[in-house]
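Predicting holo structure, iron/sulfur cluster bound.
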Amino acid sequence: MADPKKRLATNLAGPVFVDATCIDCATCRWMAPETFDQADGQSRVHAQPGDAEARRRALLALIACPTGSIGAGSPVGEKAAIAAARDAFPVPIDDRGVVHHCGYHAESSFGAASWFVKREAGNLLVDSPRFTAALASRLEDAGGVATLLLTHKDDVADYRRFRERFGCEVVIHRGDRGRLAEIDRVLDGEAPIELAPDLLAVPTPGHTRGSVCFLLDQTYLFGGDHVAWSDALGHIYAFRGACWFDWATLGRSMRRLAAHRFEWILPGHGWPCRFEPDRMAEEMRRCLEWIETV
Ligand code: SF4
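Done. Tokens:
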């Protein structure tokens, strides 16, 4: 929990606040934009959560925050409300109840999001959250984790602890395998790889040499740090300022990715987004046009 003595001056007065330890990962801003925005390179509370749903979202962001930089005094931060937020993850992203946001972002992955997929063929974890007993217990209740898919080498966080807890298979592309220990399956090449009838690995080198997006049911695209929605730009984008391997390669990867059909982009960093498939294809074309300009 955040320290009231370190409360940022940019916060609006009231019970919810961000303190000076914020690393500006943007998690709280996409989870609860009605409460949090950015000022002076960090997040702050621009409006105190006014109704029950806004309070719930603010407290979920408090639990997800990788650095414990969000505080909530009474009446928003009552013990029971905080406990309910802690036990709420993984939170379903839509009413299909298949894909869930894990919360519990890890500072070691600069607050990247990770995603839990409940499916008959074996549950998936896409990238690794911070390991906590509360989250592990909830994942266990949901049937555990069969496979842990790593989109790239930056967002691996506590994957070894999840592997140890659930005995899951850990998958990464050879380009990002490096010295990572306890990897069970290594993907090769740039062609899409069918991991299961409902699950495709789409290698997307660029952000890193071994970046991969994973596509579930031709609906949910787990974008890692390859692709996300930009709230500031108002379109789908890639991280030009955090492209660790090669921007031209990233552009070619994006063109190949745009040929696939999907509705959701669920990234590590940046905003998730959802569009009907035809509109998503149009948005991906906009992204490709933008890439040509930067
Ligand atoms: S989630 Fe935490 S670290 Fe990330 S921007 Fe919000 S307050 Fe800062």
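The two ends are 39 Å apart (CA to CA).
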